[in-house]
Amino acid sequence: MTEILVTTTEHIPGQEYEVIGEVFGLTTQSKNVIRNIGASLKNVVGGEIKDYTKMLDEARNIAVDRLRVNAQNMGADAVVMMRFDSGSIGTDMQSVAAYGTAVKYL
């Protein structure tokens, strides 16, 4: 796959382009039961829950990879105005969406 530029800005310096449409990448992640128990114990004493931080980082990367694939399938050269949205599903699952606007260079 040719690397699709993904940017949070509206304009790509030095590029003119036309808008193709909205693109997105989604994932839902969960940790295993053993790690959930460890996270629950950490919740008692406070502090960062590193397994969940790692899970969210992985989820964001997967969501952006899927966004790039979606953009490439639409014939895009880049994605502008990329944003993330996330939310919990139950007590141990996290959903992450990456979305933006696919564009084609002129």
UniProtKB/TrEMBL annotation:
Which residues are the signal sequence here? Answer: none
**What InterPro entries does this protein map onto?**
UPF0145_dom_sf, UPF0145_YbjQ-like
One Pfam family here: YbjQ_1
Q: Which family does it belong to?
A: Belongs to the UPF0145 family.
- The identity of this protein, by name, is UPF0145 protein EGT51_12225
**What species is given as this protein's source?**
Levilactobacillus suantsaiihabitans
